[in-house]
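F.,

This is the one I mentioned.
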């Protein structure tokens, strides 16, 4: 899908590092852990043995060497601040028609326009569908960016605390959107020249009452990638 190159060589991602699971447009959002995840808040490291799935139509498994969290990451007690990570693959991904990199907006030339209210981004994943089953094939959904004030006013009161400067809201509230299993996936936006840029990472959305399942009739909260570019740049220069 992403045949267009990014605007400069510095914007083309390395094939070994993946922003969460979203550096490839068709990369699965899910990480299968062989060992229990152990998060060290002091060093912001995740110790795990896992594999990650990429591809479209069929899954291609990739071993994960490391999962790097930003030092500002906080879990539920910190309202999921800086809720993104860098997945380091054990070997470079083999790019194909179905597996392509997505651009990073290193110079923030597109963020303001692409994250303006009403701008339409696309999210992809194998998360739960309308039947509450994990999808067998990759699904893609359009999601408009929502003004922060409107998002706060229309969310459940207890959920409003997750809307902050480092996040943004997107969705339709019509039953379409991301769900369980889609967390960590990217929200990407296309420029007039055809290049796609990663501006958001699926973070959290309200649950249906009495369940642990998403409620697609509320907006989803995304982590802003542009806020974390300095951390991302420094980490990518060390892997």
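My design for it:
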């Amino acid at each position: 899908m992403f045949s267009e190159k990014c605007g400069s060589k510095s914007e083309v991602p390395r094939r070994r590092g993946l922003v969460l699971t979203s550096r490839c447009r068709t990369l699965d959002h899910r990480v299968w852990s062989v060992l229990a995840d152990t998060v060290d808040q002091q060093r912001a490291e995740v110790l795990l043995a896992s594999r990650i799935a990429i591809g479209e139509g069929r899954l291609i498994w990739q071993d994960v060497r490391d999962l790097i969290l930003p030092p500002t990451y906080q879990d539920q007690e910190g309202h999921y601040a800086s809720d993104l990570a860098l997945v380091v693959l054990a070997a470079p991904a083999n790019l194909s028609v179905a597996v392509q990199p997505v651009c990073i907006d290193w110079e923030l030339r597109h963020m303001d326009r692409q994250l303006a209210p009403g701008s339409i981004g696309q999210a992809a994943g194998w998360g739960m569908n309308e039947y509450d089953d994990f999808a067998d094939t990759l699904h893609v959904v359009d999601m408009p960016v929502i003004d922060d004030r409107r998002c706060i006013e229309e969310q459940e009161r207890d959920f409003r605390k997750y809307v902050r400067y480092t996040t943004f809201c997107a969705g339709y509230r019509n039953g379409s959107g991301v769900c369980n299993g889609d967390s960590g996936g990217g929200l990407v936006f296309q420029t007039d020249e055809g290049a796609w840029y990663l501006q958001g990472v699926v973070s959290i959305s309200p649950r249906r009452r009495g369940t642990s399942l998403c409620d697609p009739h509320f907006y989803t909260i995304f982590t802003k990638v542009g806020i974390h570019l300095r951390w991302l740049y420094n980490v990518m220069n060390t892997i």
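Helices lie at 111-114, 148-154, 229-236.

Talk soon.
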